[in-house]
Each structure stands twice: as structure tokens, then as C-alpha cells.
Design brief:
The structure holds two protein chains of two kinds. By secondary structure, chain A is α+β, with helices and mostly antiparallel strands. In chain A, 30% of the residues lie in helices and 24% in strands. In chain A, strand 8 (120-124) and strand 9 (130-135) form a beta hairpin. The longest helix of chain A has 18 residues, at 46-63. The N and C termini of chain B lie far apart (38 Å). Chain B is globular, with a radius of gyration of 15 Å. In chain B, strands 1-3-2-4-5 form a five-stranded mixed β-sheet. Chain B has seven helices and five strands, in the order ββαβαααααββα. The model of chain B has no long low-confidence stretch (mean pLDDT 94). Helix content of chain B is 44%, strand content 12%. The longest helix of chain B is centred in the last third of the chain and has 16 residues, at 122-137. Chain B has a single domain (17-165), classed as Glutaredoxin (3-Layer(aba) Sandwich). The relative contact order of chain B is 0.21. The chains are: A alpha+beta, B alpha+beta.
Chain lengths: 159, 170
């Protein structure tokens, strides 16, 4: 199942991801906030490194002002995600889709047949509805931070 | 609220730092003074006949001194020595703390007091931020990124690519 990410207007599915402290992050945590889910293939792969570093720069100065919560999502174990985050010096909270592996990525339509998340961005509105989504043509290609802002604009235009 | 929605990269302006023969093919480098691949590209660009423009794209999370280094380059620019500082920064990326920046300013014979005031000034900070924001809007995601008329190159860049750009009719 990899038909591309859930399209705008689709309610986010029920799901359970693990936060770094081991607690659950579910659909209910999306309600009331605009949420950006950054699906990335692997912790410590060089391309992800650049992507989260760039998004961190954007998050600190811009996204929080717009009230957008950003999370990194991968199938890595939480320990790896935290180590990755510390190595990068980024503060973007991480959510783990480790067990059952990739279940949430599948539910969002972003599971790569190779067994890891596609490089995809999904913005969920405060009502839990997908407002915008994007999947990179290949996991090697980094979606620019500008695309996030284009997506937020589209979200605002529909509201 | 600054919007960072997609927009074409800005054309060259008086604000850009340019080096190389005026009639050579042009290339714009988006770079970060603490990024090792940027230093590698800067080295490879030496001796290649290109008209090079440098714009700032400092990523603070992985490179905590990148922004300070960019500020030092801009402060040097205000005393007419941008490229000299650019080269000194890239030549020794392990030494980017304030005393190291002062050492470089001294080596270039800059007015040190002015250099120190300028690098912290709102104008210098705004310049770096403008470069960064325009880069984000233009889809820059990593450093170095080279913008040539016909293509973009990012990450590790072969000397061969630079030779080809140099040989291309502009």
C-alpha cells in the first residue's frame, strides 16, 4: 500500500506512535493544533540530517510563530531517534513507528516498499483533517522548507 | 510575519559579493562557513574561470558558529574585504570562535572596533537573514548549492562540474 500520502480533506486515521519518552502519540494529539508530520526514511542517513537541520532553522524562527507543531516520524526505535536528534542539535520532537513497524506510515500512505517511510510531509489541521501533503519524487530528494509554507498557505486559503 | 512560500531566487544585485572575471560564466554559491563541503567547493573554485557570487545559508543546528562566521564575512565586507575573509574562514574551519574571528580581522588589517560593532549590527544580521530566507523560498535545502544558469548542483561537487560550467557559454 503506497498510493502516495493522504490527500487534503481526508480525516487523519486513528494511529498510535511512540514519543521519545515512550508515551503514546495518537490522533487525539492532533486535535486543536496545526501539525506538520515530517516522515523521513532513516535516522543518521545524511540526507535526513540536512532536512531536519533546515527545518529546525525554520521551526525556531517561523513555524512556532504560526502555531504549527512539527514532528519527525520514522520507523527507527525511539532511542535511535533521540540519539539522532542530539547528534544534529535539533529540537524537533520525534515519533517512532517501530512496532508494528511502519503501520502508521502505511495508514498515511507513505510507506516505501523498501521498508521505511517515504520522504513525505503531511499537515493536519486542528480538526484532525489532512490539509496538505507532499511526497518527494525519491527518498534522496529533500523537500524544501518553502513547500511547508506553500502548504500552510493552501490550508489557510481553504479555512 | 515573514512568509517563506516558494519564490524564484533573486537575481544578482549590488548586495551580492562577486569575484572572478566579469565576462566569465556566472555561478551563485549558497554556502555556510562551517560546512566542510562548502570549504571543499571554495577550494575547487580557486583557479576556475567563473564569476562567483556567494550567498549565506548558515544552518545553526549542525554548525553553531556558521552564523557568527557569516557575520564576520559581512563585517569584513563593510571594510571592502569580503572575499579575503571568506577565504580565511574556509581555510581553517576548526577555529571559528570570536578570538579566531578577531585574529582574522587583525590579519586583514581591519579596523577591529568597527569590525566587532558591524558584525553584530542589525544591518549585517538582516543581510544574512535575507540571503537565507530567499534561499529557503527558492528551494535551497543543503549546502553547498551552486546555481548555474542551466542547473543546480548540491552537496559534494566534482571539480569536473566546475570545469564544465567554466567552459559553458554563458
Amino acid at each position: 500500500m503506497s498510493d502516495g500520502p493522504l490527500q487534503p480533506g481526508t480525516p487523519a486515521p486513528e494511529f498510535t506512535l511512540k514519543r521519545e519518552d515512550g508515551s503514546d502519540f495518537t490522533r487525539a494529539d492532533l486535535i486543536g493544533n496545526t501539525t506538520l508530520l515530517v516522515f523521513y526514511p532513516f535516522a543518521f542517513s545524511p540526507v535526513c540530517t540536512d532536512q531536519l537541520g533546515l527545518y529546525e532553522e525554520v521551526l525556531g524562527d517561523y513555524l512556532t510563530k504560526r502555531g504549527v507543531s512539527m514532528y519527525g516520524v520514522s520507523c527507527d526505535a525511539s532511542w535511535s531517534q533521540t540519539a539522532f536528534k542530539e547528534k544534529l542539535g535539533v529540537s524537533i520532537p520525534q515519533l517512532s513507528d517501530f512496532e508494528p513497524k511502519g503501520e502508521v506510515c502505511r495508514a498515511f500512505g507513505v510507506y516505501h516498499p523498501g521498508g521505511f517511510p517515504q520522504r513525505a510531509l503531511v499537515i493536519v489541521d486542528p480538526d484532525g483533517i489532512v490539509g496538505w501533503s507532499y511526497q518527494a519524487p525519491s527518498p534522496r530528494e529533500l523537500p524544501g522548507a518553502n513547500l511547508i509554507f506553500d502548504g500552510l498557505d493552501q490550508l489557510a486559503a481553504r479555512a | 510575519m515573514t512568509e517563506l512560500t516558494s519564490a524564484p531566487l533573486p537575481p544578482l544585485s549590488a548586495e551580492d559579493h562577486l569575484r572572478g572575471p566579469a565576462d566569465a560564466p556566472g555561478v551563485v554559491v549558497y554556502g555556510d562557513f562551517e560546512c566542510p563541503y562548502c570549504a571543499a567547493v571554495a577550494g575547487k573554485l580557486e583557479g576556475v574561470r567563473l564569476r562567483v557570487a556567494f550567498r549565506h545559508f548558515p544552518l545553526r543546528s549542525s554548525h553553531p558558529r556558521a552564523w557568527a562566521a557569516a557575520s564576520a564575512a559581512e563585517a569584513a565586507a563593510l571594510q571592502g574585504r569580503f572575499w579575503e575573509m571568506h577565504d580565511l574562514l574556509f581555510s581553517d574551519q576548526g577555529r571559528l570562535e570570536d578570538p579566531h574571528l578577531w585574529d582574522r580581522a587583525r590579519a586583514l588589517g581591519l579596523d577591529l572596533e568597527r569590525f566587532d560593532a558591524d558584525r553584530r549590527s542589525p544591518e549585517v544580521q538582516a543581510h544574512i537573514r535575507r540571503d537565507f530566507e530567499a534561499g529557503v523560498r527558492g528551494g535551497i535545502v543543503t549546502t553547498p548549492t551552486l546555481i548555474a544558469p542551466a542547473a543546480r548542483y548540491a552537496g559534494r561537487i566534482d571539480a569536473q562540474v566546475l570545469e564544465e560550467l567554466s567552459a559553458a557559454a554563458d
